[in-house]
Structure formats: structure tokens, C-alpha cells
Amino acid sequence: MVALRAALTGLPSYIPAKQIPGAAPLASNESPYGLLPAVAALLRAPQADLSRYPDMASTRLVAAIAAHHGVDADQVAVGAGSSEVCGQLLHAVVEPGAEVIFGWRSFEAYPMLTAVAGGTAVRVPLRDDALDLDAMAASVTDRTRLIFVCNPNNPTGTALGAEGLLRFVAAVPERVVIAVDEAYREYVDPGRSLDASVALRDRPNVVVLRTFSKAYALAGLRVGYCVGPREVIAQVRKAQVPFSLGTLAQKAAIAALGDAGEVARRVQLTVAERERVAERLRALGFAVPQSQANFLWLPLGRSSAAFAQHCLAGAVVTRPFPDEGVRVTIGRPEQNDAFLDLTEKWLTSS
Ligand code: PMP
């Protein structure tokens, strides 16, 4: 028998959401509005020679991201989606057996990537559907190397108050890297939570993760990045799989960054829809937490799988977390209406 790494044999594989032709895809927190016009135009134009390797340093993209955040280029590392950047960060800072803290439930890739990197996952239960920062700070030991702070948290959508986050960062020893995962930052009401890429920019141990998969509507091309202190970023870059970010992906992300007006318009639509759907769900009796992302959390407990199945039968794909809840992405208004209709039917039939 071949010898395999024990840490991975018992690990579940990442289960992607079902893709069902004709059904409303409200399971993966993607943009419902398709490619940004600037990206579509780029893809229609003749391309550079794709038989050549991409620019491994992603020089132009890194410069565009650095300009977007008002930082220097050596404070930015890129990868094939922020999932890959999470992995790079883990490989950059985690020694075998070191502890990696994150709230739970949170983004499913954290425990998987931690195991792949040889780290030990420390899951800190949520309190009232939100990250319990005090409990997370109290979980730090001499073995802790990295803490993921998912803000807003996936799948509950809750965002951290500025004061709590600042207190947390002050309480965590500087040798521990804090990765603030802001995959959904564009959907956050700026008054509700701070932008760590600005407010925590001078901290020597804070790295901010961002993605082009959500508000920038580029999930299929895979582009993510992190912004942080030079010393950490230099090491994160070393952990990138060579050439993992392709030429088209780099160019598309630059085009997407240049389409800021359209991104803002779409974000506004999604935020307005989020508030409309949340209000309706609450009126129907669901305890939906305040979401600052492009999805909502329905804490349905034991009914979660059955509810998701009911939605699926009505051609709406949601994301069930069995015995916990169901996450539904905010789609186009008509898709959200279809989901609300199914929810009402569920209530009358159960
Ligand atoms: N972080 C969070 C919190 C997410 O929800 C996701 C995607 N579901 C990601 C990171 C990764 O996104 P991507 O790899 O597509 O950039």
C-alpha cells in the first residue's frame, strides 16, 4: 500500500455547491450580474500569446492593487483566488503542528488548508452567530502562529465592530499573524466595521485578504490577494505555486479594478436587496442575523437540509450546513423573490 500523509486521509474534501442548469445559483456568494463590462470587453479583444508563461510576479496587477489600497507594491501578494492566498499565508507562517485559530463556523477552507499546511486547527465557537473575539484572543498559546478573522463572517454574515477588532489586535501578541479575511468587504456599510487594510495598515502582524470573486464578479478566473507588512508579504510570495495566476486572470483583475463605478452600482443593488430579503424573512419569523455581506444566514437547525432540499425542488440552490443553518446568496431581484416564495411555501407546508 502507498504511504499517504495521515493528516489528510481523514480530511473531508471541499464540497462545491451543486450547479443545476436553469436553477437560481444562490449557494456560492457569486455576483449575480455576470462579468463587468470592462472585463467582457477585454476578453473579446485579441489576447497576448497565451502559449507563453504569465508574468510570475504579476507586476502590473500588483501595482494596480497597491494603488487601489494606497500601499507600496511590496506590501501586496497575489494568488489564484484568496483561497490560494490563505494557503500561501499558512505555508509562510505555520511550522508543523503550530496552532491556527479561527471562529467556527466560518469559511470551510480554513480547517482544510490548515491541515494541508501541517498546522493544528483551533476552532472557537461563535457567540450569537458572530466571531467571539475575546474567546479567540484567550485561545492564543505559545504554539499559535496564525489567526483567521473572517469579517464579515461566512456563513453568518455578521461584521465586527471597530472597537472590538482594535481591542483584539492589541491583545494578540505581535509574533502571531492575524489574517483579516475581507472577502465581502465591498458589501459592508463603512460605518459598521472598519476596513482593516486602512485601519490596521501599520500593524506589523496584520494581513488583509481580499478577492475578485465576489463584488468584482471574477470567481471563474481565480484572483485573490493580501495586503500586509513587507516581511510577511515577501514570505507569502515565496509560498505561491509558480505561475499559479494566469495571464488572462491578471489582465481581467486589472480591468475589474478600473470598473469601479459599475462595481459600486452593483454593490448598491445587492445591499438594497439584502435588506429587503432580510426584512421579509424576519417578518416571516426567521432569526436572520444582521448581514454585511452578499448572503443571509437562516439558523434552521435540524430543518436545514430539508429546507435546502425544498428550495432545490423549486429550482433555487442554497447552501445547507446540516443541523446548523442555510446560507442563501443575494441574487437578482427575481431570484430573491423566487427564494422568498419558496420560503413562504415552506412555512405553510410545515
Ligand atoms: N474567504 C471567504 C470568507 C470566502 O467566503 C471565500 C469564498 N467563498 C474565500 C475567502 C475565497 O474566495 P476565492 O478563493 O474565490 O477568492
Automatic annotation (TrEMBL):
The modification N6-(pyridoxal phosphate)lysine is found at residue 214. Pfam families: Aminotran_1_2. It catalyses: L-histidinol phosphate + 2-oxoglutarate = 3-(imidazol-4-yl)-2-oxopropyl phosphate + L-glutamate. GO terms for molecular function: histidinol-phosphate transaminase activity. Its EC number is 2.6.1.9. Pathway: Amino-acid biosynthesis; L-histidine biosynthesis; L-histidine from 5-phospho-alpha-D-ribose 1-diphosphate: step 7/9. It comes from the Bacteria. The keyword Ubl conjugation does not apply. Residues 26-340 form the Aminotransferase class I/classII large domain. Keywords: Amino-acid biosynthesis, Aminotransferase, Histidine biosynthesis, Pyridoxal phosphate, Transferase. InterPro entries: Aminotrans_II_pyridoxalP_BS, Aminotransferase_I/II_large, ArAT, HisP_aminotrans, HistidinolP_aminotransfase, PyrdxlP-dep_Trfase, PyrdxlP-dep_Trfase_major, PyrdxlP-dep_Trfase_small. Its cofactor is pyridoxal 5'-phosphate. Belongs to the class-II pyridoxal-phosphate-dependent aminotransferase family. Histidinol-phosphate aminotransferase subfamily. Homodimer. This is Histidinol-phosphate aminotransferase. It comes from Kibdelosporangium banguiense. The gene is hisC.
